[in-house]
Amino acid sequence: MKWAEFFREYAVLIFLYISLVFCNFLFLILLKVDAGYLIFYFGLFGSFLLFLGFYIFWKKKRFYDSFFHILQQLEEKYFISEMGIQANFLDAKKMMEAIYEIDKSMKERLVQNEQANQNFRDYIEMWIHEVKMPLANLTLLLHNHSRKENELTEQLRKLEDLVDQVLYYVRSEIAEKDYFIRSVSLKKVVYEVIQRNKDSFILRHINLELSELDGVVFTDEKWLIFILNQLIQNSLKYQSLKEGKVRISSEVKSDQIILKIWDNGIGILTQDLPRVFEKSFTGSNGRTVSTSTGMGLFIVKKLVDQLGHQIQIFSKVNEFTEVQIIFAKSDFYEVL
Questions:
Q1: Average pLDDT over the chain, rounded to whole?
Q2: More confident residue, 271 or 333
Q3: 216-247, pLDDT tens digit by residue?
Q4: Which pLDDT does position 185 carry in this prediction?
Q5: CA separation (Å) from 79 to 66, 253, 255?
Q6: 15 — phi, psi (to 5°)?
Q7: CB 83 within 8 A of CB 100
Q8: 273 burial level (CB within 10 Å; 0-12, 13-18, 19+)
Q9: Which residue in 321, 300, 125, 328 sits closest to 224, CA to CA?
Q10: Which of 238, 223, 237, 226 is nearest to 154 (CA)?
Q11: CB within 8 A of 76, min separation 6: which ones?
Q12: What is the pLDDT of residue 298?
């Protein structure tokens, strides 16, 4: 709080007080009161005004300086009502009471919203598990009919992947409660994802190359399978008309292991690359492939970050796209 602010706040009262003292001073002059008494009178009321002004200014300055100092240090500003700030004048007490009531109302609403969100997440997860059952039954039934089995199986697999995408999107909001970091074989995870997408590879005549997958990384196996499945689905979805190829390999460095998923599909425009992980961003490829939603890579990036890994994409239009997932060596997780 500054003196200029204080004077603006009390300008009217100061003016009225000075006017009153001045009127009294003139009245005493008209009564021909002794000059010494007038000087004493004027000095007394002037000193009283200065003392009162300094006292009120000091009380308010001490409170507001403390209030805003604490407020600036708080990362979550709404905790200000719980910091035990002592109000030493009426305006401050009323302000703190209002802040407390506002904060109380906000917390009650947050609890209600969180409960509603939790109920929604619980329902979505239950619905997804219910939907997966008939999808699994349909997949089994297809094996009894050889006609167009691959096409039908691929469509069912797409439905299952979309259902999984919803499930993992919901869980990504509270992923820390759902994952468990442990040593995972890259080969095991990659083979499981390839097996899951084998019908799509066969139907689209995509050549698959696997190499250098003997490494072990520290991650959550379930989350990594979902992440790799999304990336493989993208490689299959954005293939060009030429002979398709997908190559999965890994590179071991002194402090990290890099898993690489490369394809010779339609690629990504240079100006789109910085935005591919944004929510609902489809870019130019979204106009080429109508089934693009822009959610797959957004969820992948969110999960990769929460697992403590890194992800990056390199691409050249009509030539290739390569996605790299970078895993820290075990020392990083042992320290954590």
A1: 78
A2: 271
A3: 999 989 899 999 999 998 888 888 767 889 99
A4: 92
A5: 15, 45, 41
A6: -60, -45
A7: no
A8: middle
A9: 300
A10: 237
A11: none
A12: 86
Show the CA angle centred on residue 274, arms to residues 268 and 276, nearest 5°: 60
What is the pTM assigned to this prediction?
Answer: 0.59
The single residue listed with the structure tokens 């790299």 is 324
Q: Give me the amino acid identity at 207.
A: N
**Token pair recorded at residue 246:** 């997908």
23-73 pLDDT per residue, tens = 766 766 676 666 676 677 677 777 777 777 777 777 777 777 777 777 777
Higher pLDDT: 184 or 286? It is 184
* Structural tokens at position 204: 């689209």
Whether the Cβ atoms of residue 142 and residue 156 lie closer than 8 Å to each other: yes
